[in-house]
Write a structure and sequence with these properties.
elongated, five-stranded antiparallel beta sheet, 2 helices, 45% strand, 98 residues, rRNA-binding, Alpha-Beta Plaits, alpha+beta, structural constituent of ribosome, single chain
Length: 98
Amino acid sequence: MSAHKYELMFIADPEFDERALKKLTDEYMETVTKAGGTVEDPDFWGRRKLAYEIDGKTEGNYVVVNYSCEPAVSDELDRVLNLNDSVVRTKILRKDAK
């Protein structure tokens, strides 16, 4: 198996300040680095209006992170992100797909 490149976008609770958002992002990206993957610097887009209301929220903090790892590690990252109530939505795209 070889590492693949991925792009993660997630929307976190709009109440999070910048420090809390960075801490949350770092905690999740540890899943990748502990398994031998690499993570590029996260791109914090800040608080933005959602296209539609999700769980009573109309805004969210957007974060985009590019990383490389084994497919199983990316699956685990997706699983743990979806367990967190502070994470409103997630989307992981494989960047090197044919």
